[in-house]
Amino acid sequence: MKVRPAIIAVGRTRFGEHYEKEPEKLIEEAWLRASAEADIERKSLEACYLSDYFLPITNKFGLEEGFLSELTELHAPMEVTRSFGSALSNACNAIQAGRYSLVLVGGIEKMTDRWDKIRDDLMLLEDPWSFYAGCTPEANHELMLRAYIKKYGITGEKLEKLNVALAQVSVKNHLHATKNQCAQYQRKITVDQVLSARKEAGKPLGLYDYAPISDGAAALILTSEEMAKKYTDKPVYVLGSSSATDYLTYPARDDMTHFVVSRIAMKNALSMAGKSLTDMQVVELYDQSTVMEMVSLEDLGFCEPGKAWESVYKSCQDYKGYYEIGRKKLFVNMNGGLKADGNPLGATGGAQVFEVVKQLKGEAGERQVKNGEELKCGCVLELEGFGTKGYVYVLGRD
Amino acid sequence: MTHTDLFYEKGKLEVCTLINEPTNKFTKLGSYIYGIISFHDGKIRVPGRITDRMATCNEAVDFSTLEGRGVVPRFRRRYSVDKSDVIPTISLAFTFADEYYPHQEYVIAKPKKEYDSPGIVGYGVYTSRFRIKEGNIERSVPFIDEDSITAAVEAGKLALIHSRVNSALVGKIYVGSESNPYAVKPIASKVAQVLKLGEEEDDMQSVDAVDTEFACKAATSVFKDATALVEYSKSNIKYAMVIGSDNSQAAPRDCPGGELDLFVGYGAAAFLFGKNDVIAEVEGWYSCTSDTPDFWRRDGEPHPMHGGRYTGDPAYFKHVRKSAKKLMERLKLQVGDIDYFVAHQPNVQFPVRIAKELGFREEQYTPMLKVAKFGNTYSGASLVGLAAVLDVAKPDDRILVASYGSGAGSDAYSLVTTSQIMDKRKNQKLTVKYQAENPFLEYVDYTTYRRLKIGM
Known about the structure:
CATH topology of the domain at 6-116 and 213-231 in chain A: Peroxisomal Thiolase, Chain A, domain 1
Distance between the termini of chain B: 36 Å
Largest sheet of chain B: 9 strands, mixed
Helix content of chain A: 40-55%
Oligomer: heterodimer
Largest interface: A-B, 31 and 37 residues
Distance between the termini of chain A: 14 Å
Shape of chain A: globular
Strand content of chain B: 25-35%
Strand content of chain A: 15-25%
Number of domains of chain B: 2
Strand order of the largest sheet of chain B: 12-9-13-14-6-15-20-19-18
């Protein structure tokens, strides 16, 4: 990447239920925290990229740009995307093209107000035929797990271990979230709780295997490499970024056990960054379900296909704060992941980037990764829909 | 990829899970199995819902016992909608091929023989796998995503499979029903589109489709129209299909009209008429009509009303007696010339009494008596009786059918079977007997029956 976009500030709200706050209050809070960090006045913003999936449905905002204009008191160019990854992608392109040198990237979602309807809304992210056939937001995760078990011939004791490993993913993420003041669930859970929720539901995955629905916002300020130095001595660079797209209809895809978009995006992002997998020290994965975290470890190349659960199982027997994959320590979802940090869709990717940036800058407080070596590089995987789109960002410091 | 019609093909349930918290439009379905269905050795994969399974609380499902099994596409309501909305339908609902509804290939065969007289060239009967049993009577109950439209499609599909006629050659479709979920919108158009009747052109089917209504004789009434149409060379219609389909309506037992609730069933029968490879030639017919208010449903009312004792002698018996006698007289037939007698069967007593009165012996009228297995399937009732007889008749048997429709009228037909009835019999696994005595029948209690009958 010739011109490296630089993240000079990040901000976010707590994720969870914010029924007392309007969406504008949430995005303002995230923006103010980010701008305070780098001391940026809003009038210096040249453009804004905002992500949200459902504001038009949940809050009757059809033209979110106008709402952002009111909020920032700016008449600058503004664009809206679905995912934070997508907004950041547009922002990076603009910085790299030399079009702008200081932009705001924000993500917002307010889902809990539509508690009884939000699962129907989420079906907008699946193909209509799956919806017509009776699919739910959770069903494809369970089908992927069934397909995974069958493809890799996992039975008997191995299957029991896999099921426990998936439970441990959730337990681990909850544990991480206890150190995250912004997380939706700052409490520990046990493997037994995860397993009994599955049993109660009579399904392969249960309540504790899934990320919640959440309200929240996240924001970051992106500048050119040159400009970054004016604002901070610790910029975090977007070294590599890539996205990929797959068929909307999950059953029609070639591989029912993995997300091809994650594999492609990771490969291209690493190549752009001139980095290798072993350079990745902290990773934020898109664990909408525990299965997603497991297959993402394989999709990104950290684990062999069909083997991630073994690494998770071994690492979690006496969990030390990281997954041990081969001889490498991999710090995954230090903020608690989508499972415990929360999953306000349009802001989720922002929280993932927030975490890697904070870790790389050594500002993650209690949950700061202590690896015995300086943290230089990390990556973020964000998905849209059930693996229909995948965004990977490789972030790093000089 | 070449075009494939998954409606007739057998799929395989690849992987599945249990849905017990569906999205809002699916809540009436309760819990159900949802999964991925593959066709053509996995080359095509589609999402699918397993239907015809009653939800049980805290059901522990071993998914490995379901995955890998063959499934058949079923035509069903997609999800629940408001009463004023269009009812969406789907064929991404499936049932297991090794249970009630086996997979049958739709083979199109070139006709072997053209007959002088037109007649029935194929038929199909469809009822669901659910039953309510009260006393000695069993009645078929639709699953919650079924209605008279879905039954009509199923019966039509089975008739095409049985006849081996190319659906593109069907030029007319009549659907008789008194339980169309729409007051205005035909069932026949849906049947024509789903079964691809007539040549397909510009997203339209080159077929004339129309619904008929005359209580329980809505379908038999147009047997003669179908027969005449295929006989008339200038009509350019080689085959015409007649379907009688009902999710027979009745008020709940404690309401006015609730006495019918003891008898109503669910099902459809489809008959295909033509001149090629005929299995039963139409020898003649006679119809009679009078303005008799024995049973009616006012527009906007959900359930029909019933004239009580008045429905017997001045209604059913008077008209069935007349049509049967008059046709026999016209064709100069004696009771002994007739091998099977089929009458409309609203209950067990009525058809037996009229058969006896007309002089028929038990062996002549027993084969048609299916009301104790399926209940009164209204427009499909005499048709199910006729299908049951065709399932067992030998070549050159004469069948006298006398339907009855409240309001009131009766159609009598004399049919004579041909040798091809035996040839085509092997084309159909879903015979009347198969559906009546199936090991996969599921019996439901009264509360469930009412819930299923009302539907999504």
